[in-house]
Design brief:
heterodimer, A: alpha/beta, Peroxisomal Thiolase, Chain A, domain 1, nine-stranded mixed β-sheet, two-stranded antiparallel sheet, 14 helices, 35% helix, B: alpha/beta, 2 domains, 11 strands, globular
């Protein structure tokens, strides 16, 4: 496999992640894009193409939402593409940007992810009522927490994992988020706090879940020659992978996310990574629920099946551990404006690999892996970032 | 660019299709396209892109429901929130990176499942500034048509002639949903929707699915005896604000064609192209788009149409397939319907509609009101 053009990340921007921001989706997109442009020393005129990532239109109640957001993202009179794979969109949007640049069709691409969940009344869960198969599942009137409880239960049962070990993820991530300036739910909590919080659907407690949020995030991608003009420290997007499993989630064993493993293998192959646990310095797997971080760490082939909880309890995945996981604070700590939260993980990799992560800095960060997940427990999207050497 | 279309498949386009689900229709189009390309989806196709918008489908996160019937389970699949030509452009870029050799594109409409087309379209209007008008969003087309007629001195009758031409062309297109032999008077005297736009000026909704297989140069030569090469691709969005647009011209098309013509080395479109499939969501749009594409000067399209220039046997055939007006409005799928016609013509497979000695064609799309977004593709049967 010979990739036509190597792609670099040269700028990143992020808004505060909060609920009920006064800004519109356009304004959130503008704030993040503007910050990314400033960080790269660019103006809108230097941008050749724009990729937008945003999850269901139903949140904002705007049909063809990406068309409405485009001026906020700086895309007026430019080539503009909306890419979309449900919850996996946040890490997929930079993949869309990657092929815009790697194909040689564009020298630069501004990747913007926006989510504004708060307009959804009475709760964003209402929008999720329309993600089900209308004949087979919708009549059961399910909501997302139920099916994740099923998946979590299956994962715990197959590997005999105690809930205390899973709760440790919330403690770690909310703690990490204390150092993230955009964070919505940073906190110093204990395992007991998680176990004693309200049961949503057994075995999911309130503190196992990330909050709905509003926010936006942006990255600037550029081809190698253009990147060097703007920065001495580009971060390379050297591996991309994505995979979508069958719609019929009821026919799968939910204990292992095979689709994440397929996406990870694709991205590692491209990035020439043969031994992921050794070669990856830190990872940002998708953590909308506590167990998902563990599930995805295993899907990313960074831990053996069933061993991610043990690594967490032993502190291996802490920010100062051997394999830091979600040093940003993840969705559990920073917040979950769906597509923007996925891109926040890629922005974290960018800052980590440029030694710009401040108090969150992971020592000796050389290679970072970001991953998001979505649809009906169905899609995995993976990006591998490398430090310039 | 060295990417080719090596397989095409579609269902017939119909006003209603109650007997089959969208999954069954998508399966039918996919199977035909894969057979046409001579590929096994589960082994040969590395990436799948579908063009879809959640509100059209009645689902949130529509891409959940595409992998099974496309043969794409546990493969690279994504949705492009745009029309079929934008999905095709992104598929072509994926191949150009060197990551994939064979990619499948899908675009569709199951419009007959919609109970409230007007309501859905109203949700596309800016929620703060425009939604409160409480009018059918086609008022935008009425205003735009009025402005276009005023600025360019194009006549109402010339717009009606677009409808007559395209519906008549559709008579020879076996998959078209709305072929008819209609008169200019019938168009003008049909129900008023938003002055001067009448009901027959508007392309009627239809159901239909289209799948295409793209391949890299090396793979295309292996797979196909008649690969159709993508010579140029451009896509662009003008401002989303109704208040800030030029209402007389299709600026998004001009921006998109500049990129596509540059890639394809097109200097004089009227001469370098043999025919075009352009978006005709509304009758006047065909004329406006032809002018934006530089196929004729601004204000000349109506006159040239009257002179027979754009008829099937004219000097520059336009929408020989019947376009949206004749084939049916397939929502995001109509863009691929334009490409489909180009492929069939360039292969020499267009039957009664065949244009003689066609070598280079143009397909152009627009996403409909209230957007100002569209794509342009240049296709050729010569590498």
């Amino acid at each position: 496999m010979n990739i036509k053009k190597r792609v670099a990340v040269i700028g990143a921007g992020i808004t505060l992640f909060r609920r009920r921001l006064k800004e519109t989706g356009k304004e959130l997109s503008f704030l993040a894009s503007n910050m990314a442009l400033e960080s790269a020393g660019m103006t809108r005129n230097d941008i050749e193409s724009v990729v937008m990532g945003t999850a269901p239109d139903a949140f904002d109640g705007i049909h063809m939402k990406s068309e409405n957001l485009l001026d906020g993202a700086g895309a007026t009179r430019k080539p503009y593409t909306h890419v979309y794979v449900g919850g996996g969109t946040g890490v997929f949007a930079p993949i869309g940007g990657w092929w815009h640049v790697a194909s040689g069709m564009h020298d630069t691409c501004l990747v913007v992810c926006e989510e504004k969940m708060s307009p959804c009344f009475p709760h964003p869960q209402t929008a999720f009522r329309t993600i089900w198969d209308p004949i087979i599942t919708r009549p059961l009137n399910p909501n997302l927490v139920w099916i994740f409880a099923l998946e979590m239960h299956r994962y715990m049962k197959v590997h005999n994992i105690p809930k205390e070990h899973i709760a440790q993820v919330a403690v770690k991530n909310k703690g990490n988020a204390l150092d993230h300036p955009s964070a919505q739910l940073a906190a110093k909590i204990t395992v007991d706090d998680v176990l004693n919080s309200e049961i949503m659907v057994y075995p999911v407690n309130r503190l196992d879940i990330s909050p709905p949020s509003d926010g936006a995030c942006a990255l600037i991608l550029a081809s190698e020659d253009v990147a060097r003009k703007y920065t001495d420290a580009p971060v390379w997007l050297d591996g991309v992978g994505w995979s979508l499993d069958s719609s019929y989630w009821t026919n799968r064993d939910l204990y292992f996310p095979q689709y994440v493993a397929e996406a990870a293998k694709m991205a590692y192959k491209m990035a020439k990574i043969t031994d992921p646990p050794k070669e990856v310095s830190f990872a940002e797997p998708y953590d909308p629920f506590t167990y998902k971080e563990l599930h995805h760490t295993e899907g990313l082939l960074l831990a053996k099946k069933g061993e991610a909880p043990k690594l967490t309890v032993e502190g291996v995945t802490a920010r100062d551990g051997d394999l830091p996981i979600c040093p940003s604070g993840g969705l559990l700590g920073v917040g979950n404006p769906i597509a923007a939260a996925g891109l926040m993980k890629c922005a974290e990799a960018f800052w980590q690999l440029r030694d710009e992560a401040g108090k969150r800095q992971v020592p000796k960060a050389e290679t970072g892996v970001c991953q998001a997940w979505g649809d009906l427990m169905q899609v995995g999207t993976v990006c591998v970032f490398k430090r310039d050497s | 660019m060295t990417v080719a279309i090596v397989g095409v498949g579609c269902t017939s386009f119909d006003s209603v299709t109650p007997a089959v689900s969208f999954k069954e229709q998508m399966f039918e189009a996919a199977v035909k396209a894969y057979a046409d390309a001579g590929v096994n989806a589960r082994e040969d196709i590395q990436s799948f892109l579908t063009a879809a918008e959640d509100y059209w489908e009645g689902y949130s996160i529509f891409d959940e429901f595409v992998p099974d019937q496309l043969g794409a389970v546990l493969r690279s699949v994504c949705t492009i929130g745009g029309d079929g030509l934008l999905a095709l452009s992104n598929g072509a870029m994926q191949i150009e990176t060197g990551l994939f050799d064979v990619v499948a594109i899908e675009a569709h409409s199951k419009a007959s499942d919609m109970l409230t087309f007007e309501g859905i379209l109203t949700h596309a209007l800016d929620p703060i500034y425009n939604r409160a008008f409480d009018a059918h969003p086609f008022f935008i087309a009425g205003l735009e048509m009025q402005r276009y007629l005023h600025e360019t001195k194009t006549t109402r009758e010339q717009c009606a002639q677009v409808v007559v031409k395209n519906k008549r062309n559709a008579i020879d297109n076996p998959v078209a949903a709305f072929p008819a032999d209609m008169t200019v008077d019938e168009v003008i005297n049909s129900r008023m929707v938003s002055h001067p736009l009448t009901e027959r000026d508007i392309s009627p909704l239809a159901d239909g699915m289209i799948v295409m297989v793209l391949a890299s140069e090396k793979k295309a030569k292996e797979l196909s005896d008649y690969p159709i090469w993508l010579k140029g691709l451009g896509w662009c969005s003008d401002t989303p604000w109704l208040e800030a647009r030029d209402w007389s011209a299709a600026g998004y098309t001009t921006l998109a064609r500049e990129r596509a013509y540059k890639q394809a080395g097109i200097k004089n479109p009227q001469k370098d192209l043999d025919f075009a499939e352009v978006d005709d969501y509304f009758s006047y749009k065909e004329l406006q788009h032809l002018e934006a594409l530089g196929i004729c000067e601004t204000g000349h399209a109506g006159k040239l149409l009257e002179d027979g220039e754009f008829h099937r046997k004219g000097a520059f055939p336009v929408n020989v397939s019947g376009g949206r007006l004749g084939s049916g409005n397939l929502l995001e799928g109509s863009a691929l319907q334009s490409v489909l016609e180009c492929v069939q013509q360039l292969r020499g497979h267009a039957g009664k509609r065949q244009i003689k000695n066609a070598k280079t064609a143009l397909a152009q799309s627009w996403r409909g009101v209230p957007t100002a977004t569209g794509c342009v593709a240049i296709l050729s049967n010569e590498l």
